[in-house]
Amino acid sequence: LLRLELGDRCYRFACSSCPYIYNVLCAMEQTKYPQLKEIDDILGGEDAWKNAATTEERCPECSHMQCYFVQMQTRSADEPMTTKYRCAKCAFVWKD
How many domains does the chain have? Predict the structure, then answer.
């Protein structure tokens, strides 16, 4: 790892384990962003809706009256199940 130190006329990078020195004569900036990993949809993605039951519930986006729904236990056992709906027309997803 190079450390930054003040030299005679400029800053410089110096190695602590060998005699390497690099004089910094102008401003330097380097930005490196980490590569993001692909993650799986924890709720099953598109496959979760393949065998979902249908019901008549109004979509808040397009007002269509048919949607798919799945129920899952997302909180503790003494709490009611969470119902997720998906519009059959516009595929908007909401929960109740």
Answer: 2
